[in-house]
Amino acid sequence: MNLHFRAEGKGKTIVLIHGLFGSADNLGLLARELKQHYQVISIDLRNHGLSPHSDQFSYQDLAQDIIDTLDHLAIDQFDVVGHSMGGKVAMALSALVPHRISHLIIIDMAPVIYHAHRHQNVFHGLREVNCHLITKRSEAEHYLARYVEDAGVRQFLLKSLAKTETGYQWRFNVEGLIANYATIMGWHPALQPFTGKTLFIKGQLSDYIEPQYRGEIMAQFPNAKAHVVANTGHWLHAEKPATVNRIIDQFLTQ
């Protein structure tokens, strides 16, 4: 799996991993600051962005894709920042190559199974767009709005709408993500614990990291620290980028 990625800056390597429906651009506000002092590798996960599509979509597959990419670039040691689903990819990565990771930073995600179906309306909207020949982005938003009320979420999704010779199409693999949704929301609690430096950054208003998950977090990441960013939700790195960048920079220098 030859992932699409973007490399910026010089110095020690930091890998940025986006979440569900995202792409390498989603952590751009973090990359903009980090690339001043580090080499930043921003990844498009399989079935997202400009990376290839595949029916296989386990967290071990996604982590191995990143390992293969870093091996191709001859990068041995690195730090990792993962948001949301990308946080779970980062956690899986820490189980596969713990000796290669210096700092592990997870943004608003826990190593647990999430039982609620959080994206049903999004999948309905994406499929609705696929039912029509889209010649303008505004047409896609019109169909998307039938199911996705939040304008901010629609704009986020539309970042992955690309113009092709046959009209606009989603860059991510809609049907592949739907087929693997249980895997995306699931987890493998039997993974080898990662004892390296680990930081969980939570959005105060988000429910992805709850107090009852502390046991699972500490079992897999016994040296984990936590930082809560006040008055932010799941997209805390976009809501308060300066604050999140400061937290990451302080942790990386420890």
Automatic annotation (TrEMBL):
Q: What is this protein called?
A: Alpha/beta hydrolase
- From which source organism is this entry? Photobacterium phosphoreum
Q: Which GO terms describe its molecular function?
A: hydrolase activity
Q: What Gene3D superfamilies does this protein map onto?
A: alpha/beta hydrolase
- Which key words tag this protein in UniProt? Hydrolase
InterPro entries documented for this protein: AB_hydrolase_1 (IPR000073), AB_hydrolase_fold (IPR029058), Epox_hydrolase-like (IPR000639)
Taking every annotated instance into account, which residue ranges of this chain make up the domain AB hydrolase-1?
A: 14-246
- Where on the tree of life does the source sit, at the highest rank? Bacteria
